[in-house]
Design brief:
The chain is mainly α. It is built from six helices and no strands. The protein has one domain: Four Helix Bundle (Hemerythrin (Met), subunit A) (Up-down Bundle). The two termini are 23 Å apart. 26% of the residues are buried. It is elongated. This is HEPN domain-containing protein.
Length: 147
């Protein structure tokens, strides 16, 4: 039976997952243009950081949407959003990286002097794909049913 509420929910998840993939690709594109000059080109560096933040915020939005739709409670913070969902999916191995990304984005938003080019480069090359893995896992799992 057609459920318009469920269809809108699924559409919203698809749109958010696409947004995550676009922002991750854009951050990588800025870094890969020339990684040796990445830190010196403030426009590229800032564009990469903004896209990392946008991808992370879209992932958090996916998580909050699922938690609301599944009536899983009210998360205390962004880490709790990811902990709750990843543990329900059996993907607890992603939690440390999601927490690292949360810390990175918090620093970027509230004290950009703390970020180093090395830290930003490591996020782009080593950790950013976890956001795509998270989005894919959320699309693949029906978290609205009981655990």
């Amino acid at each position: 039976m057609f459920d318009p509420g469920r269809e809108m929910f699924n559409d919203a998840l698809q749109i958010k997952a696409g947004s995550i993939a676009q922002h991750v690709a854009r951050a990588k594109e800025e870094f890969e243009k020339d990684s040796s000059t990445f830190a010196d080109d403030i426009s590229r560096y800032d564009a990469a950081i903004l896209n990392i933040i946008r991808a992370f915020e879209a992932a958090a939005s996916v998580g909050q949407l699922i938690i609301f739709h599944a009536k899983l409670g009210v998360p205390r913070n962004t880490d709790h959003v990811f902990d709750l969902l990843l543990s329900r999916c059996g993907l607890t191995t992603l939690m440390p990286t999601m927490s690292l990304l949360a810390d990175y984005c918090h620093k970027a938003l509230h004290d950009d002097q703390v970020l180093t080019p090395l830290e930003t480069s490591a996020v782009i090359t080593d950790h950013l794909d976890v956001l795509i893995q998270f989005a894919e896992a959320m699309l693949a799992n029906d978290l609205t049913s009981p655990p």
